[in-house]
Amino acid sequence: MSYPVSRRTVLKSAAALCASGLILPPSAFGAEGRLLVAETRTIEVLGRAATVFGLTGAGGIHGLRFDAGERFDVTLENRTAEVTSIHWHGQVPAPEADGITETGYVGAIGAGEARSYDFAARPGTHWMHSHHGLQEQALMAAPLIVRDAEAVRADVQEVVVLLQDFSFRSPEEILEGLTGSSTMDHGAGHGTPAPMDHSMMAMGGMDLNDVEFDAYLANDRTLDDPLVVRTERSGRVRLRIINGGASTAFWLELGENQATVIAVDGNPVEPIVGSRFPLAQAQRIDLLVDVPAGVVVPVFAQREGDRARTGVILAAPGAEIPKLAGMADVAAGPIYLSLESRLRSTTPLASRAADVRHSVMLGGSMSPYLWSLDDQPWGTRRKLEVSAGQRVELQFMNHSMMAHPMHLHGHHFQVVDINGQALSGALRDTVLVPAMASVTVAFEADNPGRWLYHCHNLYHMATGMMSELVYV
Length: 472
Prior knowledge:
The chain is mainly β. Helix content is 6%, strand content 41%. The protein has helices spanning 13-20, 149-154, 171-179, 458-462; strands at 34-45, 48-56, 64-66, 71-78, 86-89, 114-120, 124-130, 141-146, 157-166, 201-203, 206-209, 215-218, 228-230, 236-243, 250-253, 259-264, 267-274, 276-279, 284-290, 296-303, 309-315, 356-365, 370-373, 384-386, 391-398, 404-408, 413-418, 421-422, 427-428, 430-433, 438-444, 450-455, 466-471. Strands 22, 23, 25, 27, 28, 29 and 31 form a seven-stranded mixed sheet that branches. A six-stranded mixed sheet has the order 12-9-14-19-16-17, with no helix packed on it. It has a five-stranded mixed sheet with strand order 13-21-20-15-18, with no helix packed on it. Strand 20 (296-303) and strand 21 (309-315) form a beta hairpin. The longest helix is centred in the middle third of the chain and has 9 residues, at 171-179. The N and C termini lie far apart (48 Å).
């Protein structure tokens, strides 16, 4: 297998390696006892230097790559000046290895310290990101790819795309503009918010975007200088797309070209062909794309409720690369569940009645900027109790005017109901619950411990939209 290399020159060689590493090179696979470094790096955005975080593996690869059967045997070294904690999003280790501090199993990793992890790696397109403060907004995130045996046998060119929202403002300044406070306390104290300085995009009564960003990135880059991937062999590409946006949902757009959905959140699904796909915060999607000789396939990611977009370009050898605008002709509508309702897992849960059912109300508002689960912030959270071996159904009821991508740590669940309509849907770890909608998921209680569940809009979580699932 051979893979193209990024052509962009960035301000530091480490940043260049990170950008190019998102195209999977052969050296990304096969090593044991991996070292992962949390560090500070410099990238260029819109012609300006920006200091951000990074998670760098061996050889400067951005993130981690594993082949089928390899263990997640990783030492994380913190070379930043801040404490941190890194969550292995999509993996299902024991709770003390989940990379978070909120449930009390472990503390944060101090500057200059290291911590080792060793567990069975779950196959699929996953990612890793900080779960400390607001570091995720400062790009403390990277891909975490575990190829299964079928992907290895297929020998298809693979390209990983990490989407992120970017601001030259600090995350603390963004939060202060929303709430009047730069402190992330998960809503422990409500206080009186200052006037908001963001530009809210509303559509049909729904609140779509609560933060205005300076740029939207695909592998650290904008469409001013996008990543261009030259295709190989048959021209077939497996795109592994990760929405690492702290506060942004995207529509993936291929225009007149088509792609086949083969997995979501790292879990295989029955194939669905299309040219436009929704991707909420923290979700992942695997697409098969054919690029015939002489053809260029732009893969856009357009922010919902906006014209702003980013993306990458797939191009056959020798094809001329067009200049792509960073703004679409028209604003995209809200992300919704049209694809979700069609997705079907190739390995669904066994048919079985639920042993326990929980309902959680998602609430909050833009003004004052406070978000909650069951009307409670983290400090006074209502814990959901389950027992090992139970089949659990968890209903998310959104009583707010903003969509919430809900993530459960330590488990993958199946979508079994949307707005009262039963289905045997996809296996996921993050599901979007649109405004004034309900989504029910089911999972096996097979990983005892205390586990977070929360909205994956960083600023919603920061102001109270997080709670716990507890085994008793």
